[in-house]
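Hi support team,

I'm opening this ticket because the web form for multi-chain structure prediction keeps timing out on my end. I have pasted the exact lines I submitted so you can reproduce it. The total is 812 residues across two entries, so I didn't expect it to be a heavy job. Is there a limit I'm missing, or should I split the entries? Thanks in advance, R.K.
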Amino acid sequence: MSNLLAARAQMGTSLAFHIIFSALGVGIPLLLCIVEGLALRTKNPVWMMLTRRWARAAAILFAIGAVSGTILSFELGLLWPTYTKFAGAVIGLPFMLEGFAFFTEAIFLGLYLYGWDRLSPRAHWLCSFPIWISGLASAWFIVSANSWMNTPAGFVIKHGKIVDINPLQAIFNPSTPYETVHMILACYVATGFAVAAVYAFAFLRGKRSEYYRKGLMVGILMAVIATPLQMVSGDFNARYLADYQPVKFAAMEGVVHTEQGVPLKIGGLADPNTGQIHYAIEIPNGLSLLAYLNPDATVKGLDQVPREDWPNVLLVHSSFDGMVGSGLFGLLVAVLFWGLYWFKKRTFPENRLLLWGIVLAGPLAFLAVELGWMVTELGRQPWVIYGYLRTKDAVTTAPWLNISFSIFSLVYILLAAALIWLLRQVARRPLPQVKAVGEGYQVIEPNIVDAEEVGV
Amino acid sequence: MDVALVALIILWWALITYAVLGGADFGAGVWDLFAVGRLADRQRNLINHALGPVWEANHVWLIFLIVGLFNVFPAAFATLSIALFLPFTLALLGIVLRGAAFIYRYYAINSKGRFARLWGRVFSVSSLLTPFFLGASAAAVASGKLLPPNGIADATYIVSLISPFALTIGAMAVTLCATIAAVYLTIEARDTEHDKELAESYRLKALIAGAVTAILGALGLGLSSVESPILWHGMLIRAWPVVIITMIIGLATATTLYARYYSTARVLIIAETAFMLGAWGLAQYPYIVPINYTISNSANAPNVITAVLISLACGMIIVIPSLYYLFSVFKLPYPAPGLQRSANEQIEPQQKGAAS
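Hello R.K., no limit was hit. The queue was backed up. Here is the completed structure from your submission:
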């Protein structure tokens, strides 16, 4: 592998790994806040059992999120020093603000996860608020920096030097409102489906107590609220991209030539050399209609930029379709679940096919997050700072990038394998015994090694 | 006053904070490696409880340092990223494995099983290696020989990294972390676990590690006269009073520890670290990466640094009280709002159940 390819592979692997934990890191704290609030309000011990279980999983997931995020903050410099020189000057601020958000999150996580026996029930619950708020803020700051890479703003290049830097303009660049909202909603969609999928799977394996039903319903409630909003946000993004990032948009939709009345191409495979999409389902004038609400509107094609400035159309188009498809599947499942729930006069739907659909929607929601991220990152290539710095000019001069990529890949495999093993162990522990006492709850964690009974 | 200098001083404080908080977490990992024999399980338990609630927050100081440098001195940051590619990559691997391994061990269902033991070993070995690489990197920067003579960073130019000076300072970073950790653990053993025997064992460890740190420090100071002329020169003209105070505080720490005034020793070891790093900063002033990058030639535009300083002030208003709350709930003896009544009596059996 060339140094550039190895650096891109390492960065891509790191992001693909980290994004899973950051999505959960935004979504789970809100769920914890909700279920613990319900536990304190309703005095139903099942809510407290859910809170305890999720907190235990969260402690492990968030630690892995923290260390994988650290890898990224180092890698910006280690792999792309020229990028950091440029970006540090202009868009460093949101990285610093994200640092503060991460700080707040880590502090209150410490209080939340290890303070069960020290804090009063109410103080403990209040500690969940800074966690989900700062998780939200972290996502916003980091994605605003990424938006800047797509639509750089807030500086001028004069005689090869960056001058007239305006950090606020850089943060509030044109992409920021679209990208940040889409990413944050994606975190809630993915977390909701993931939680629902875990309990749907348990339910299918015969665990049908209130605990499992409530766990599933909280997850899919979050999903059914966030997914339609995500569809609306996606529509806004697409129409924004058609105007502000037309090359990325053309690659997503496989538009080679700038023309009027462009069809919408669903599925198919793009030829990365010509940009043409084969075997796609075509809806005449569909794309013009979607992008501009006018069937005859002109859509800019890839031909507006030189061939060497095209992103990889095959990857971008397929990722885009995969993301939309996964999202639509999730929406269908979530709506069916709640539809059946109301239709059957508020009884829990036990249709096996539907439950298997929920199980499938969990991984698909994370696939959508990964693919969506690939659309925006690969769609920006060959630039790292669009129009200003090419990826190949940003890579480090250090050799050994192949070795570095191999080592980090091994570390990720090792961490993931241990994490899955440990989470399964944690899930198999018998449920804690919970009893409402006074203001709060008395919780006795079973202290059994190699437990027979299985929980989730 | 120059905004870049203000920002640099704040970053230096963050470095000191990382050393006394994050450094102690690495040091605890080092002691975990030496946890053998009769007290081994109690030691591991103590380390688990001491690190659990705070290590993630302590770790953020490092992130803060990185993004701070990246914001205020972007060109120097880019240069350091290339020149220190090797030690930073190794330190990064250590940081990642340390954090992950700690949490894997902590939440392992069977604390004596193979999974927990294996990750426990990863935790302690990476805790030992990480401060070594960070210390050696710092020494390589201070030596003024990090960049080749043409001034263009080269990852393969590692002369300054394998010099006796860098190796000595790397080793000293490990023993300093171990000393800080041993002092903190002495207090935790006495106050939280009420385990006198354990407290005594950490007191002895702190004294030994402190003595080794002093020897390595003296050696490093001597070597700097030959190997890092800029630092040595800065010591002679500017930083010597701070160096002398550092030595006095070191002796005072040892004395109070010997006399079992643990709380005073804790304050003194923090001061010791602050003065030691302060002496380095003063001696290296005004260089960021001697001799090519100074404060003035590598600072970002003043208006950007001002924006950074404003956001720093806003961020600290949230973070500092929160941090104080975290430490007062878990570490400090002062009363804090929101605590459960008789929290201390309840915590022991519960947490042990959760940790096993």
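A quick check on our side: Confidence is low (pLDDT under 50) at residues 343-356 of chain B. Let us know if the file doesn't open in your viewer.
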